[in-house]
Design brief:
By secondary structure, this protein is α/β, with parallel strands linked by helices. 38% of the residues lie in helices and 10% in strands. The protein is built from 16 helices and eight strands. Helix 5 links the parallel strand 2 and strand 3. It starts with a helix and ends in a 12-residue tail after the last helix.
Length: 349
């Protein structure tokens, strides 16, 4: 078996990541195939239900380099969605009105030069738009300082990552100074009405564990966040989403480097919840990569696991093919089905 360092050095290759996930095990713990768990729950093959969410990755460019990032995003990434691909996305939305929510992600989606144009065009189609904002982008450059006003103008739902409500834990996970800038950005969002009582401007926060453990109960953690942020910073928000870190990309690197891979996978397997499995986000979501390729979810996108049907690119979008496909699964899927479950909207069970 390859050494941990050798494995770590090849994780930029998605096929190698999948190989590690599928075949690594310890003498004390054999990793039960995720398919077997689904079969036991009567959920295999996993099929789409009620397709509603159109999640678009606008590029891997980001002003941050977070330790848990499954996209492996950063300032040096050049992959970015072109306007031509955005036009194909808009045509797909126009032809499929049941796709009610457009979820814009990255990287930092705001760094795409056509971001604002794309948002405006989506709103013309009367869709609900979610932007996954890392908060610090608002302060990164003067050209982003008016983002809170732009979001408000178009009634965008803002979902922002804040790993914890203290500076030390947040900065350890996302970099020095990130917590301070995040607090300033949240205050700017509050100042235009986001997360405040009596407004329809939705501001949700995201919690990711800082290590090889599962998130605590979402409702309990949300109360802690709300109290701490209000007491110290007078910050309000609507909901907290607790998201489990999936063992791919940088987080898989971390698990291998710290010799936590087997222990973490065992936690996920032992916490498997069939109720969460029945409600995983890939059943009502289509994920579009920066280059227009289609995936069951954002995580399959990072492993280059394209849809298991003839519609593998936005230019080939055929709703009948997509609705009738089998969802591709793997050992990483345990991350979405452990405990209360995990999705881009937090717990699912």
């Amino acid at each position: 078996m390859k050494s941990l360092l050798a494995e770590h050095n090849i994780l930029s290759n998605s096929s190698e990541q999948i190989e590690i996930l599928e075949h690594r095990h310890s003498e004390d713990f054999n990793l039960i195939p995720f398919q077997q768990k689904l079969e036991e729950s009567g959920l295999y093959p996993l099929k789409p239900i009620g397709l509603e969410v159109f999640q678009v990755n606008m590029g891997k460019m980001c002003n941050q380099v977070c330790k848990h990032c499954h996209v492996d995003a950063g300032p040096d990434r050049k992959e970015i969605m072109t306007k031509d691909t955005m036009l194909q996305c808009l045509e797909t939305l126009k032809n499929n009105p049941f796709l009610k929510t457009v979820d814009l992600t990255g990287g930092a989606p705001e760094m795409n030069p056509a971001f604002r144009w794309f948002v405006e065009e989506i709103k013309k189609l009367n869709r609900h738009v979610i932007v996954r904002c890392n908060l610090t982008i608002i302060l990164a450059n003067k050209k982003y300082h008016d983002l809170p006003e732009f979001y408000k103008l178009h009634n965008i739902e803002v979902v922002s990552s804040l790993p914890f409500y203290t500076q030390d834990r947040t900065d350890r996970q996302r970099g020095n100074g990130v917590f301070e800038d995040s607090i300033k950005a949240l205050q700017m969002l509050n100042s235009v009405g986001y997360g405040m009582d009596g407004t329809a401007l939705i501001l949700n926060l995201v919690y990711n564990p800082a290590g090889a453990f599962l998130p605590p109960t979402q409702d309990v953690l949300e109360k802690e966040y709300k109290k701490a942020l209000m007491d110290k910073y007078q910050i309000s928000f609507n909901q907290l989403f607790a998201i489990t870190n999936l063992p791919i990309s940088r987080f898989l690197d971390y698990l291998l480097q710290t010799d936590n891979y087997e222990k973490y996978m065992e936690k996920l397997v032992l916490a498997y919840n069939p109720v969460a499995a029945a409600n995983v986000m890939c059943r009502n979501t289509i994920s579009i990569g920066w280059d227009g390729y289609l995936y069951d979810c954002d995580f399959n996108q990072m492993l280059d696991l394209k849809l298991a049907c003839s519609s593998t690119h936005i230019s080939q979008f055929n709703i009948d093919n997509i609705k009738n496909r089998n969802i591709k699964i793997g050992q990483h899927c345990y991350g979405c089905t452990a405990g209360a479950g995990s999705s881009c909207g937090g717990a699912v069970a």
